[in-house]
Design a protein that fits this description.
By secondary structure, the protein is α/β, with parallel strands linked by helices. It has 3 domains: 5-97, Rossmann fold, CATH 3.40.50.720; 100-313, Mur-like, catalytic domain (UDP-N-acetylmuramoyl-L-alanine:D-glutamate ligase); 322-456, Mur ligase, C-terminal domain (Protein-Tyrosine Phosphatase, Chain A, Alpha-Beta Complex). 34% of the residues lie in helices and 23% in strands. The chain is built from 15 helices and 22 strands. Helix 5 crosses helix 10 (284-299). The longest helix has 16 residues, at 284-299. The radius of gyration is 23 Å and the shape is globular. The two termini are 29 Å apart.
Length: 465
């Protein structure tokens, strides 16, 4: 735990008592703050009280005596309308922050030179976070990973000069961290997302930019125009910057050439690492993640050999282009995290001969944007509520069936792929949909795919699960 000593002897209101909220309350109390916590869910309030967190309805407290409102990132700050606790805090002139801001203040107060890597982007931030942490740890560095991935940031070990914190930051967390100032700030990419919570794409992009605006080194993916504009703007403002690209050569920065990761300085390029043969980092989207990790770890003092060894041993993340099994020439890939067409596009672009399992609770726009990838699809197996709409979009572009369930889809896709003459056929579960029609979350859905694959005769499972 990181005691939040920056609020020692201060009175703090806290709203949101999920896992990270309770952890933040304990961190504030350990640092000497007087905390009053609440949640709209009575069960969450009772659980927090049972863990020793002082609770009271924040509508009944004296807001004039509060130093800050610490808000859980899942609670609306601005859109579709501010939560009532936000209205009360603003009316009293009380600042509103989150747990990532607490971490940033603790680091500045006690170990301002402690290495702090913060990662954001619409897609790829979890893989990039895990990859950087894996490389640093593999190279023998004391490494803590958390934030929007895994552990709440205030449950990590405290910042120290020789301890690396690698923290994934969502737009919600950045919005609650006005003084965020990492050693290395990474912005991978931008596409419309969470607009219901931010009001517009311009607001969303502006929030993401905050993560790199005050970083000692900004690493920015320049394969989309919005990020290119941000990189140019930061450079004009004198920020130290590294550009990365998985699609174009750069005269200065890190880029992909075939399978090789290149670094160019003043037009002179050198190869630093390769992704050839690394299944967990397959596809252009993972090349972007690897380039960000390479630039970061070079900044952190690692050698190219250290970084290549980390790439080679990276197992990947569960449910994100996760290679779960092989059966002969057939590879089974679990990409359950692909809850929209933009994410599914990255998976479809990574393979040449695909038996695609897709569907679930549909998102706006469906799979219209994926039509250019239909020639790669030998057959589609459609499940969940989206199946009829997806079938209509596919039309006569490729073969499909409405399988209904994951078990049936896996069975039929495995049978069909086994007879494919291609050097490698891929049964790809990349739903392009939310999971909530049939499953509690994408993790449970991905586990169901994995178990369906495991039940097939002659399957060689991969990884630890």
């Amino acid at each position: 735990m990181i005691p939040a000593t920056v609020f020692k002897d201060k009175t703090i209101a806290l709203f949101g008592l999920g896992g990270s909220g309770i952890a933040t309350a304990h961190a504030l109390m350990a640092g000497g703050a007087r905390v009053t916590a609440f949640d709209d869910n009575p069960g969450s309030v009772a659980r927090a009280a049972g863990e020793g967190v002082p609770t009271e309805d924040l509508r009944n407290i004296d807001w004039s005596g509060q130093e800050a409102l610490v808000l859980s990132p899942g609670v609306p700050l601005t859109h579709p309308r501010p939560h009532w606790s936000v209205d009360l805090a603003r009316a009293a002139g009380v600042e509103i922050i989150g747990d990532v801001e607490l971490f940033a203040r603790e680091r500045r107060a006690h170990a301002s030179e402690a290495p702090f890597v913060a990662i954001t982007g619409t897609n790829g931030k979890s893989t990039t976070t895990a990859l950087i942490a894996h490389i640093l740890k593999s190279a023998g560095r004391d490494t803590q990973m958390g934030g929007n991935i895994g552990r709440a940031v205030m449950t990590l070990e405290p910042p120290a000069a020789d301890r690396y914190h690698v923290v994934e930051c969502s737009s919600y967390q950045i919005d609650l961290a006005p003084t965020l100032d990492p050693s290395v700030g990474i912005l991978l990419n931008l596409s419309p997302d969470h607009l219901d919570r931010h009001g517009s794409f311009e607001n969303y992009a502006g929030i993401k930019e905050r993560l790199v605006a005050k970083s000692r080194l900004a690493i920015i993916g320049v394969d989309d125009p919005d990020c290119r504009h941000i990189a140019n703007r930061l450079e004009k403002n004198g920020r130290k910057l590294q550009r990365i690209s998985a699609t174009s050569s750069l005269s200065d920065g890190f880029y992909l050439k075939g399978f090789d990761l290149m670094r160019a300085v003043d037009g002179v390029a050198e190869k630093l690492a390769t992704l050839e043969g690394i299944g967990s980092l397959r596809g252009a989207h993972n090349a972007q993640n690897a380039l960000a990790a390479l630039a970061t770890c070079i900044e952190c003092g690692l050698t190219a050999d250290d970084i290549q060894a980390g790439f080679n041993s990276f197992p990947g993340l569960a449910h994100r282009m996760e290679q779960v099994a092989r059966r002969g020439r057939v590879l089974f890939v679990n990409d359950s995290k692909a809850t929209n067409s933009d994410a599914a596009e990255r998976a479809l672009a990574s393979f040449e001969r695909i038996y695609w399992i897709a569907g679930g609770l549909p998102k706006e726009g469906g799979i219209e944007t994926l039509k250019s990838f239909f020639p790669r699809i030998a057959k589609a197996y459609l499940i969940g509520e989206a199946a009829p709409a997806f079938a209509a979009t596919i039309g006569e572009a490729t073969a499909f069936e409405i399988s209904g369930t994951i078990d049936k889809a896996v069975d039929h896709a495995a049978r069909d792929a086994a007879g494919d003459p291609a050097p490698e056929a891929v049964v790809l579960f990349s739903p392009a949909c939310a999971s909530f029609d049939q499953f509690r979350n994408f993790e449970v859905r991905g586990d169901a795919f994995r178990e369906a694959v495991r039940s097939l005769a002659g399957t060689e499972m991969m990884g630890s699960k």
